[in-house]
Amino acid sequence: MSHRPFAGRVALVTGSSRGIGRAIALRLARDGADVVVNYRKRDDAARCTAAEIEARGARALLAQANMAEPAEIEGLFATIRQEFGRLDFLICNAAAGMQGTMLEATLKAWELAMNVNARSYLLCAQAAFPLLTAHDGGGRIIAVTARIATERAFPYYGTVAASKAAINTLTAYLAVELAPHNISVNAISPGLVDTEALAYFRRGGELLEKARCMTPSGRATNVDDIAGVAAFLCSDAARQVNGQVLEVDGGYTRLFL
Ligand SMILES: NC(=O)c1ccc[n+]([C@@H]2O[C@H](COP(=O)([O-])OP(=O)(O)OC[C@H]3O[C@@H](n4cnc5c(N)ncnc54)[C@H](OP(=O)(O)O)[C@@H]3O)[C@@H](O)[C@H]2O)c1
């Protein structure tokens, strides 16, 4: 089997300047895919990701675009159309939100989470469709969700959790609608992963420590665990996996806490 099974393929990873998105971008590049590195404001980090993609022998295209802005999403896909004329893997990973209790939740917090996390997933899937079907007919869409917070009350995460629940539902509907076009749509639900995002969580350190101690597999989930599953979902082996939310958490969410 080829060591670069994704050679000639093009991936867009939203929010790939840092964290989980960056790990997914590097993993897909290692497997041969050219990668569009989307980010919002951290040019330095995005350039670093792009350099590491190119060190793996793939092409990287830096594409700044705020997922909260429909016009910027449209512009992003126009760039991909112009530069590559195709897209094989759409990875909707970027996320934003404000911490707080439900009673503290402002309209701004609700709209930020819903627009960046859920609405952008729908808009990206719609814009990606003609590119995903442009060559060889078909492709993969993967969203990054957080079931750790949609089925239980994760501290100060209510508005983001609601947007993640929307992502889970969108995954089911997109999967059914796009399957006849040879596009599979799945979501990955990571356990707690030590990224910059956790630094902004109230009680983030404490929650991460708990995950480190209690995850049945004996360690916390890391970015490469998520990247490996993303690569699997993009592979031919996963072609019949559709409409699923995959927990990648070492068994953590199966614990009775
Ligand atoms: N870490 C965890 O424990 C955990 C657990 C469950 C689910 N997740 C999910 O995993 C995904 C990645 O999380 P992470 O921990 O890797 O986060 P992170 O380290 O904070 O990285 C967030 C990424 O998203 C980008 N981004 C933020 N807002 C954006 C916007 N409006 N438009 C475009 N890009 C934007 C950031 O770009 P800039 O660098 O330009 O700011 C950055 O690349 C998210 O969907 C998150 O909800 C994470």
Q: Quick recap of the structure?
A:
The chain has one domain (10-251): NAD(P)-binding Rossmann-like Domain (Rossmann fold, 3-Layer(aba) Sandwich).
Q: How many helical elements?
A: 9
End-to-end separation: 43 Å
Shape call: globular
Within the CATH hierarchy, at the fold level, what is the topology?
Rossmann fold
Helical amount: 40-55%
Strand order of the largest sheet: 3-2-1-4-5-6-7
Note the run of SSEs as H and E: EHEHEHEHEHHEHHHE
Low-confidence segments, given as residue ranges, are none
State the domain count.
1
Biggest beta-sheet profile = 7 strands, parallel
Given helix and strand content, the structural type is alpha/beta
CATH architecture: 3-Layer(aba) Sandwich
Under CATH, the homologous superfamily reads NAD(P)-binding Rossmann-like Domain
- Say how many strands there are: 7
Essential attributes:
257 residues; alpha/beta; Rossmann fold; seven-stranded parallel β-sheet; 7 strands; globular; binds NADP nicotinamide-adenine-dinucleotide phosphate
Detailed description of the structure:
This protein is an alpha/beta fold. The chain has a single domain, classed as Rossmann fold. Helix content is 46%, strand content 14%. The chain has 9 helices and 7 strands. A 7-stranded parallel β-sheet has the order 3-2-1-4-5-6-7, sandwiched between helices. Helix 4 runs parallel beside helix 6. The termini are far apart. The model has no long low-confidence stretch (mean pLDDT 96). NADP nicotinamide-adenine-dinucleotide phosphate binds next to helix 1, strand 2 and helix 7.
